[in-house]
Structure to design on (206 residues):
């Protein structure tokens, strides 16, 4: 069983109740190409981003914004069609009881940078894989583990699912699940990048 917080209310959930959904061919080809082209022009910030208080972690990232206005002002208006398209296409309001994001950012890493296993805040994490020339043998997917007490001194993570990094794919999963960006194969000299949307459930029940 795992604890899940919705405001002041705590809900008990078993791992069998967890959500890990994968959607392919999310965007129309010409829109997916536009997004990928913009990603390739992005200037990245490299630094220490502490997703886990007990571990050091370094990777590239860019913060897009918390609202549509801020995202547009920051020059990342081209990420907005991902949310709008997926929200309608996969009926987020009914399936997940989400209709807006709380923030949007981008992460990236290369061979030699090992992302930490960590937990996200909020209720749902949505990861879009935009790189159209990515090869499956390069790795770079997302490892999702069984629910675990994030405050425990020692963790014994059990892999639940590996979601491969596939172009124009969207991953939606419960934010309480520990997860990790998969390492990149040595023969890959490219940047693995993703666009991340964080979202909260409306009310207490899905």
């Amino acid at each position: 069983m795992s604890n899940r917080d919705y405001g002041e209310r705590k809900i008990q959930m078993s791992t069998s109740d967890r959500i890990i959904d994968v959607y392919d061919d999310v965007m129309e080809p010409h829109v997916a190409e536009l997004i990928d082209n913009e990603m390739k022009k992005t200037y990245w910030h490299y630094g220490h981003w502490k997703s886990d208080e007990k571990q050091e972690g370094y990777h590239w990232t860019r913060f897009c914004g918390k609202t549509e206005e801020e995202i547009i002002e920051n020059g990342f208006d081209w990420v907005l069609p991902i949310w709008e398209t997926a929200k309608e296409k996969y009926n987020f309001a009914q399936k997940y009881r989400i209709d807006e994001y709380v923030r949007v950012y981008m992460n990236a890493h290369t061979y030699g940078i090992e992302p930490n296993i960590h937990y996200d805040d909020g209720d749902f994490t949505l990861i879009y894989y935009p790189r159209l020339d990515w090869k499956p043998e390069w790795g770079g997917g997302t490892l999702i583990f069984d629910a675990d007490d994030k405050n425990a001194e020692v963790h014994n993570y059990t892999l639940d699912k590996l979601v491969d990094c596939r172009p124009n794919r969207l991953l939606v999963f419960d934010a309480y699940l520990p997860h990790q960006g998969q390492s990149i194969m040595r023969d890959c000299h490219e940047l693995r990048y993703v666009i991340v949307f964080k979202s909260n459930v409306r009310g207490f029940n899905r």
Observations:
- Residues 1-15 have pLDDT under 50 and may be disordered.
- The first helix runs from residue 29 to 40.
